[in-house]
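Quick one, C-alpha cells below:
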C-alpha cells in the first residue's frame, strides 16, 4: 500500500515537471479572428501609438528646451510624459505584431519583461500624480515658501522617489513570478498580466500572494494618502482664500484632477479584468476595458496639459512658428 502511495506521488511530481517544462510560451487567448478588418484594427492601433509618441515627445522637448519651463511643476510633468512613452512602448508595438500574427503566442521571458513594463508604468504614474498634488499643495497653500521648499535638489530627489521605489518593487515581483513552476500556458488577455501568470503556477504561490498584497497596499495607500491630504488642504484654502487664489487653484488643479479621475477609471477596469471572471462580457468590450488604462492615460495627459497649461500652449505655438 505504501509502495503504491509513493509511486503515485512520483507520478504526480513527474507530471508537474513535464507540464512546467512545456510552458516555454504563453498563448494569449483573448485575440480572435478579425478577418477582413484586421488591417483596420492595425491602422487604428498604429495611429494611436504614433499620436501618443508624437504628443508626449513634443511636450518633453518643449519643456526641456525652454528655460522658462524649468520649474518644479513642469519637471514633474516631463517625468509624467516620459512614463507615458515608457508604458505605451511596452505595449503598443507588441499589440501591432499580435494583430498581424495568426498565432498569438509569446515567450515566457518576453512576457515577464512586458509585465515589468506594464506594472512599472502603473506604479510610476500614480506616484507621479501624488508628487504633483504635493507640488500644487505647496504652490497654493504656501506660495511664499514654495521656492525655498522646492529647490532643484529636492525636485531631483522627488523624481527619484517617483521612479526608483516602483521599479524595485515591480522587479522583485517579476523575479518571484519567474521562479514559479508553470503548469498552464493560456492567458486570457491581449497582453501579459502578472496575476494571470501566477494563476498558472503549479507550485506554492503563498510568497507571491503576500508580496503582491503588501506591494499593492503600499503602492496605493501612500500616494492616495498624499493626494487626499493635499487636496483637502487646497480645498480649505480655496474656500477661505481670495478670488485670485481660487482661480490659481482651478487653473493648475483641473488637468491634474482630470488625470487622476482617468487613472482611477483605468486602474479599476484593469483590476476588474485580472481578478474577476469576465467570460460573460462581450470579447470586444473586454479588450477595450483591458486596454483603457494603457491607451487613454497616455492620450489624455498630453492633450489635457497641453491645452490647459498656458505656458506650455504658448511655447508649443511659438515652436511651430519657428
Amino acid at each position: 500500500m505504501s509502495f503504491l502511495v509513493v509511486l503515485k506521488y512520483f507520478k504526480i511530481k513527474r507530471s508537474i515537471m513535464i507540464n512546467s517544462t512545456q510552458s516555454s510560451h504563453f498563448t494569449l487567448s483573448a485575440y480572435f479572428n478579425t478577418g477582413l478588418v484586421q488591417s483596420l484594427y492595425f491602422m487604428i492601433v498604429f495611429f494611436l501609438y504614433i499620436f501618443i509618441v508624437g504628443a508626449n515627445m513634443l511636450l518633453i522637448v518643449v519643456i526641456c528646451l525652454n528655460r522658462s519651463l524649468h520649474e518644479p511643476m513642469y519637471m514633474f510633468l516631463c517625468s509624467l510624459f516620459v512614463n507615458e512613452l515608457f508604458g505605451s512602448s511596452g505595449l503598443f508595438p507588441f499589440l501591432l505584431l499580435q494583430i498581424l500574427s495568426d498565432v498569438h503566442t509569446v515567450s515566457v521571458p518576453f512576457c515577464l519583461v512586458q509585465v515589468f513594463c506594464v506594472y512599472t508604468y502603473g506604479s510610476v504614474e500614480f506616484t507621479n500624480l501624488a508628487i504633483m498634488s504635493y507640488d500644487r499643495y505647496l504652490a497654493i497653500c504656501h506660495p511664499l515658501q514654495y521656492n525655498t521648499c522646492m529647490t532643484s535638489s529636492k525636485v531631483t530627489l522627488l523624481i527619484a522617489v517617483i521612479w526608483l521605489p516602483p521599479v524595485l518593487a515591480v522587479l522583485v515581483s517579476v523575479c518571484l513570478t519567474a521562479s514559479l513552476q508553470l503548469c498552464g500556458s493560456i492567458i486570457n488577455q491581449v497582453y501579459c498580466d502578472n496575476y494571470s501568470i501566477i494563476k498558472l503556477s503549479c507550485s506554492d504561490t503563498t510568497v507571491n500572494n503576500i508580496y503582491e498584497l503588501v506591494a499593492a497596499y503600499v503602492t496605493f495607500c501612500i500616494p492616495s494618502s498624499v493626494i487626499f491630504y493635499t487636496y483637502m488642504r487646497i480645498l480649505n484654502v480655496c474656500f477661505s482664500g481670495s478670488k485670485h487664489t481660487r482661480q490659481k487653484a482651478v487653473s493648475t488643479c483641473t488637468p491634474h484632477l482630470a488625470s487622476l479621475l482617468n487613472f482611477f477609471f483605468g486602474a479599476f477596469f484593469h483590476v476588474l479584468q485580472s481578478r474577476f471572471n469576465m467570460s460573460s462580457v462581450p470579447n470586444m468590450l473586454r479588450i477595450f476595458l483591458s486596454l483603457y488604462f494603457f491607451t487613454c492615460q497616455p492620450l489624455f495627459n498630453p492633450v489635457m496639459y497641453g491645452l490647459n497649461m498656458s505656458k506650455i500652449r504658448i511655447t508649443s505655438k511659438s515652436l511651430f512658428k519657428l
